[in-house]
Design goal:
The complex is a heterodimer of chains A (239) and B (114). The longest helix of chain A has 27 residues. Chain A is globular, with a radius of gyration of 20 Å. Chain A has 2 domains: 176 residues, no CATH class; 45 residues, no CATH class. Chain A is an all-alpha fold. The termini of chain A are far apart. In chain A, helix 5 runs antiparallel to helix 6. In chain A, 75% of the residues lie in helices and 0% in strands. Chain A is built from 13 helices and no strands. Chain B has 114 residues and is an all-alpha fold. Chain B folds into 2 domains: 45 residues; 59 residues, no CATH class. In chain B, helix 3 crosses helix 4 and helix 4 runs antiparallel to helix 5. The chains are: A mainly alpha (239), B mainly alpha (114). At the A-B interface, helix 3, helix 4, helix 5, helix 6 and helix 7 of A face helix 2, helix 3, helix 4 and helix 5 of B. Chain A: It is found in: Cell membrane. Chain A: This is Branched-chain amino acid ABC transporter permease. Chain A: It comes from Salinarimonas ramus. Chain A: Keywords: Cell membrane, Membrane, Transmembrane, Transmembrane helix, Transport. Chain A: InterPro entries: Brnchd-chn_aa_trnsp_permease.
């Protein structure tokens, strides 16, 4: 029986057993990740991407929603403005990761620097959620978030390949609704975020502002404008 | 004329497939900075209650802002698909079933000519 006061003073452990625990805790989220990764591969094939470019996006960016949106913004011929716009939209879609990183900071700041930088590379919604629950329950092993993240990265990159192969075979994606995989998946992800009507009022504001913006302004500015309007509505809400 | 030559080379590069990898690198950099900056942000930002509420409203707001305009543009088949996906997910709490139901609804709606 370890002395709790002494344990508190020690640096939190980072073990292989912790990494395996992280992987086990992430298993329920695996079908969603595989479906989304496969959907991205299929969508990229539909857009005429080759397999290496598709795999590079999954391996280096490793952020599904921004990869999907990037497919819409991709150019035959690039320019600095279109590249910077792609970067700005990517940062906006993945801006939630700033907040996830901030929320998990009290735990991961104890990691050795090199491992911490690696850990950020595989920080996504799924392992963030798993680690947040684990640490909230009193867990201290930093292997959990890292192991879960590493597994998710491998699954994500691997899932891209069968999706790419299947997507290249489908000649009429619209007939199967494949052009709408991204919005359908996002709608599904909204369900676990639902915590009753009152916390969802900012979402309604976000949706209305995004719709209006999409009518008035070309391009994907509606995501940024709508999301910020929703956050502002959240800030102004009582309690 | 050095400037002209440089912009000529750049124009050639931007049309080359290799420029796609520059785009990947820029996306990867933007995403990594988002992931790594939270810890710096945290040590500077005081989370007041309004900021906390804004942060908590952000994920759902991003999702809704992304899908609503796309659905509105794609028409009734997309709206049916989203409704089927959300309803299925709410009932069975299984992502795969939600996505499958959504895509099936879109396919059927389009088959019916919607």
């Amino acid at each position: 029986m370890p002395d709790p006061s002494r344990q508190e003073a020690e640096a939190p452990p980072l073990t292989l057993a912790g990494a395996l625990t992280g992987m086990r805790l992430t298993l329920p989220l695996v079908p969603g990740v595989v479906v989304f990764g496969t959907a991205f591969g299929a969508a990229a094939a539909q857009k005429g991407f080759d397999v290496w470019l598709t795999l590079s996006l999954s391996a280096f960016v490793f952020a599904g929603a921004s990869q999907m949106v990037a497919l819409e913004l991709w150019r035959e011929v690039w320019s600095w403005p279109t590249l910077l716009y792609l970067m700005m939209v990517t940062a906006t879609i993945n801006g939630r990761m700033v907040l996830m990183g901030a929320a998990i900071a009290p735990h991961v700041k104890a990691m050795p620097r090199g491992i911490r930088l690696l850990n950020f590379y595989v920080l996504v919604d799924a392992n963030w959620l798993v680690a947040t629950r684990y640490h909230a329950d009193g867990g201290r092993d930093l292997g959990v978030i890292l192991g879960a993240g590493a597994m998710l990265w491998g699954l994500w990159v691997l899932a891209t390949i069968p999706g790419f192969l299947a997507g290249a075979l489908v000649t009429d994606p619209r007939a199967f609704g494949l052009d709408l995989v991204m919005p359908v998946f996002f709608a599904v992800m909204l369900v676990p975020l639902w915590k009753g009507l009152a916390p969802a009022i900012p979402w309604i504001v976000a949706g209305a502002v995004a719709l209006l913006t999409s009518v008035l302004v070309d391009g994907y500015a509606f995501i940024i404008v709508g999301a910020l309007a929703g956050a502002a509505a959240g800030a102004l809400r009582d309690g | 004329m050095a400037e002209g030559a440089l912009s000529g080379i750049l124009a050639g590069f931007f049309a080359h497939p290799a420029a796609d990898y520059l785009a990947v690198a820029m996306m990867a950099l933007a995403t990594y900075l988002c992931r790594a900056s939270g810890i710096l942000f945290m040590s500077r930002l005081r989370i007041t209650p309004p900021i906390d509420r804004a942060l908590r409203a952000l994920p759902g707001s991003i999702v809704v802002s992304t899908i609503l305009p796309v659905a509105a543009q794609a028409g009734p088949s997309a709206i049916l698909g989203l409704v089927a996906a959300v309803a299925t997910m709410a009932l069975v709490r299984f992502e795969l079933a939600g996505v499958a139901a959504g895509l099936t609804a879109v396919s059927l709606a389009r088959l019916a000519g919607l």
